[in-house]
């Protein structure tokens, strides 16, 4: 019996070069709805580049991207929510102005207040992003990213600038929100607390997929996979 | 439309807080205008010759001050990669382009007016009643200038050539509209009126339309890799 998977998003033989450097080399990845993928790998293995190509921020050098059965040059940005190495917030605007602009919320709306309260940003709401600590800037960035109504969620090192309480806040929200997304992809060196949500692990090494495992993972499994990938 | 207004509010809020482009354009216009006026005075130009030369000085100062100042207009779009956050929020790249374009037209027009008054005052130029017509010509040139520069500035941010790329590409592309602007303003200073049916007006309008249409279509490709 042949099992036919219902892939809605595929990368076929995808390669990405920056000048003469091959960052991604012959990547084959197929996603089904509800995939919650953890990408692990050592520095320079191509995790961030892969996420940016999935997102549509970077173009491929060669290969195919298939979305809903059709070949696309790049996936449409507006269907995705993303946080990478920068906060994607306007530095000269306040937290409140950024949230209103990027989440299309009205001043004083209940949703806006709930978000500010949840991310402990109520007292900081009128401060400019450039005046915030890195940790609070990151909270504001995560508040935007995790409250967007997008089908795809991509996170690249989302907990780097967070303290312990910020990390717990992120994990609580992430584990809840990722369940409702069509596809979630997270690349991180901090895999603690992700086991209950993740159902697939992709290991990248030297720009190639060296392992692709589906299943329910335990905390210890994720840790050992991470250590093995980065060794 | 409301989305475009939201983006314009964002652009002008950022400019009103940082004042980076405005201060730079005012400073450049004042300094270059003053230097040019001193040069004019030293040359002891006759009123007739001054009338002939005035538009050339005006547009020269415009090119330098606007090119240097407008290049700062994308500073906060690329800091924190904020422009990508905006595109991810579902905002169309066309509206992002149009809001930047409008903001840049307004700022370069302010620069042009400052230059005009600095030159008029310091070079003892007698103004004929042409201000309205001059503003219209300046607005049309500023539209073409901003349409091209709003595409080239993000390109120069990501290029290895960085700041060199903008003047290298901008000036050749601007040649038709600057030439039309110069011819129209020279005729205006000479006769005190514009022939609205002249071919220079058609050239200026045509290039404005072409550059804005190109900008709208190319902006997303320029912003993304």
Characterization of this structure:
The complex is a heterodimer of chains A (231) and B (225). Chain A is of the alpha/beta class and 231 residues long. Chain A is built from six helices and ten strands; from the N terminus they run βββαβββαααβαβββα. In chain A, helix 2 (95-103) runs parallel beside helix 4 and helix 4 packs parallel to helix 5 (164-177). Classes of the chains: A alpha/beta (231), B mainly alpha (225). At the A-B interface, strand 6 and helix 2 of A face helix 1 and helix 5 of B.
Itemize the secondary structure elements and their pairings.
The complex is a heterodimer of chains A (231) and B (225).
Chain A: E1 7-18, E2 21-32, E3 35-40, H1 47-55, E4 62-67, E5 70-72, E6 80-83, H2 95-103, H3 110-118, H4 134-146, E7 152-156, H5 164-177, E8 183-187, E9 200-205, E10 208-214, H6 219-230
Parallel strand pairs in A: 3-8, 3-9, 6-7, 7-8
Antiparallel strand pairs in A: 1-2, 1-4, 4-5, 9-10
Chain B: H1 2-18, H2 20-42, H3 47-70, H4 75-78, H5 82-88, H6 93-122, H7 131-158, H8 165-191, H9 199-223
Helix pairs in contact in B: 1-6, 2-3, 2-6, 3-6, 3-8, 6-7, 6-9, 7-8, 7-9, 8-9
């Amino acid at each position: 019996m042949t099992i036919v998977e219902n892939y809605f998003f595929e990368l076929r033989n995808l390669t990405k070069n920056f000048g003469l450097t091959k960052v991604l080399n012959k990547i084959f990845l197929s996603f089904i709805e509800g995939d919650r993928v953890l990408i692990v790998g050592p520095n320079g293995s191509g995790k961030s580049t892969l996420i940016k190509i999935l997102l549509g921020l970077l173009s491929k050098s060669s290969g195919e991207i298939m979305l809903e059965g059709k070949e696309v040059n790049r996936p449409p940005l507006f269907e995705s929510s993303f946080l990478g190495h920068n906060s994607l917030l306007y530095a000269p605007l306040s937290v409140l102005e950024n949230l209103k602009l990027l989440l299309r919320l009205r001043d004083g709306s209940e949703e806006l207040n709930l978000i500010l309260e949840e991310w402990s940003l109520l007292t900081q709401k009128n401060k400019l992003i450039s005046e915030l600590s890195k940790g609070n800037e990151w909270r504001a960035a995560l508040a935007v990213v995790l409250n967007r109504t997008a089908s795809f969620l991509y996170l690249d090192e989302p907990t780097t600038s967070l303290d312990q309480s910020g990390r717990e806040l992120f994990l609580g929200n992430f584990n809840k929100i990722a369940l409702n997304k069509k596809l979630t992809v997270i690349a991180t060196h901090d895999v603690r607390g992700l086991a209950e949500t993740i159902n697939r692990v992709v290991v990248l090494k030297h720009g190639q997929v060296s392992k692709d495992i589906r299943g329910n993972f335990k905390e210890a499994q994720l840790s050992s996979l991470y250590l093995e990938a980065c060794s | 439309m409301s989305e475009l207004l939201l983006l314009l509010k964002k652009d002008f809020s950022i400019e009103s807080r940082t004042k980076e482009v405005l201060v730079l354009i005012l400073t450049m216009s004042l300094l270059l205008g003053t230097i040019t006026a001193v040069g004019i005075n030293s040359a002891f130009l006759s009123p007739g010759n001054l009338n002939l030369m005035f538009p050339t000085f005006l547009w020269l100062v415009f090119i330098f001050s606007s090119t240097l100042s407008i290049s700062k207009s994308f500073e906060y779009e690329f800091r924190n990669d904020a422009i990508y956050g905006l595109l991810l929020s579902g905002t169309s790249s066309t509206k992002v382009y149009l809001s930047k374009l409008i903001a840049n037209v307004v700022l370069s027009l302010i620069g042009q007016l400052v230059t005009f008054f600095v030159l008029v005052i310091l070079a003892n130029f007698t103004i004929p009643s042409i201000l309205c017509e001059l503003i219209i010509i300046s607005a049309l040139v500023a539209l073409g200038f901003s349409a091209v520069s709003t595409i080239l500035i993000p390109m120069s941010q990501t290029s290895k050539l960085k700041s060199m790329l903008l003047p290298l590409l901008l000036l050749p592309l601007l040649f038709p509209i600057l030439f039309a602007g110069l011819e129209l303003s020279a005729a205006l200073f000479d006769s005190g009126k514009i022939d609205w049916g002249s071919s220079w007006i058609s050239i200026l309008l045509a290039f404005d339309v072409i550059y804005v249409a190109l900008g709208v279509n190319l902006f997303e490709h320029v912003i993304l890799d």
